[in-house]
Amino acid sequence: MSEHLDKIKEAVISGKHAEIEVLVKGAIEDKADLGQIITDGMVAAMDIVGQRFAKSEIFIPEMLVSAVTMKKGLEIIKPLLKGDEIESKGTIIMCTVKGDIHDIGKNLVIMMLQGAGFDVIDLGVDMSTEELAQKVEEIRPDILGLSALLTTTMPEIKNVIETLKDKGLRNSIKIMVGGAPLNVAFAGKVGADGYAEDAAEAVMLARSLIEAK
Ligand code: B1M
Questions:
Q1: Given ligand 1 and candidates 63, 125, 208, which is best to mutate, with the most ligand atoms within 8 Å of its CB?
Q2: Which of 23, 50, 63, 85 is least surrounded, with the fewest CB atoms within 10 Å of its CB?
Q3: Which residues of 12-21 are buried (b: 16+ CB within 10 A; e: fewer)?
Q4: Domains in the chain and their CATH numbers?
């Protein structure tokens, strides 16, 4: 089984986007665990891509092709994670904050939340705070999920929360945050209701936030 995972990991690292579909399908046919394909195959690959970028061994075009390859791989897994529950567990708005276009993690979190029975409204990336506040007012979700991957966009999370407070919208929703540079302490400091390290934790957190409402 690890042979499948190694090949998937290598394909994402090298940006072999034409091959990823066959590799992921092959792993699924051989009954590989979906969580392992994602975590030990594709997420592990992106970690290596990030390290190589940080050391200037690769540049943005290569990082982008790896991202496209991972997205293609996730698209194959997505339908298999869909939950068959009829009753919604709650409504969640998700986006990346202003200035941040990293959406792979957000998309993965959305896939897992949908699989767990939540209705997720994906507002995409680089979301302006004003527009986001309007959406919260219009949709009145149970939870707002904010993702940030850059240290420079982390402060936007605080901006969003302060804007929602100013507009009298903060107390009617729960706010969860996530993204590689964030942590529990940061979430507490900016006034979020919770932080999740990965997609599996995000599902557990969303469940507990709904229970606490
Ligand atoms: Co960029 N990038 N990038 N990048 N990129 C990072 C984040 C970086 C760490 C790379 C590095 O230097 N090692 C670095 C940030 C450094 C810093 O902030 N200190 C960086 C940089 C610098 C940049 C640019 C500034 C580069 C430049 O232009 N000079 C630029 C900024 C663009 C922008 O946003 N304005 C940029 C651009 C890009 C690409 C467009 C090329 C591409 C993104 C493509 C895309 O997403 N559509 C890209 C990529 C691919 C990466 C890395 C390599 C991989 C990110 C990823 O997809 N990881 C990344 C390095 C790294 O993270 N290892 C890097 C896989 C994904 C599954 O994990 O997103 O962490 P992650 O999501 C996880 C958890 O964080 C959590 O759950 C997810 C699933 O387990 N999570 C949540 C995430 N959101 C959550 C929300 C929740 C709960 C949990 O609740 C709401």
A1: 63
A2: 85
A3: bbebbbebbe
A4: 2-80 (1.10.1240.10), 91-212 (3.40.50.280)
